[in-house]
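Hello Y.,

Per our agreement to keep a running log of every chain we model this quarter, I'm adding this entry. I've kept the format consistent with earlier entries: sequence first, then predicted structure.
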Amino acid sequence: MWHDPQMEIDEFLAALDRDSAAFADACAAAGPGAEVAGCPGWTVADLLWHLTEVQDFWRTIVAEKRASWEGYKEPQRPSDDGLIDLYMAGRTRLLDALGEADPATPVWTWSQDKTAGFVIRRMAHETAVHLWDANAAAGTTAPIDATLASDGIDEFLTHMLAGVAKGAAPVGGSVHLHCGDVPGEWTVTEAGDGFTVVREHAKGDCAIRGTANDILLALWRRLPLSELDVVGDRDVAERFIAHTGND
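Predicted structure for the entry above:
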């Protein structure tokens, strides 16, 4: 079932259009050999290829209304000097496919939300975080749009907490996240092998407060927890950030 996000579909599509174009510019400014700190071991060329491949995969899933990922064939990686052209062509096809899709259309996804709407939202957030990566590689620090970042926190808490990092310790307490610049509050509590997440203010064993951009980037381990305001049990906050296996 299509999850109720904080933003509308047309807002996700507009963000994807804007940020996917800016991503190509940032990659060009950084150069293919620049290191990507948020993706250890990757160069900008690797980052550019990754987003090219991801966009092609999800375009195929949505455009063909696939019920399975099986049978998908990824494009062949070109030389570094051909990456941006391939990416830009794929970007156009992705925007066309997602723009034409009914968000309620059933499609395969790795999440419990098996709809095209999940893909649209995921592509907006995937692109926004990797735009931040590319900008950082180019030596700039442009933040993620605050409203989009707040929704990105919500998406992360809804879909990403199941991905546990190898060797991660139990969080051992509840966590309250609070955006200081735009609406966005969540309280996360361990429940058996997973978590319960409520979109409301509540007292947790710790609170993590900051801009939506900074909280989102901390969740994706792009910024250290020291960049945020942590109140209460800092060990709980650190274990929470270290918990997920997502990059």
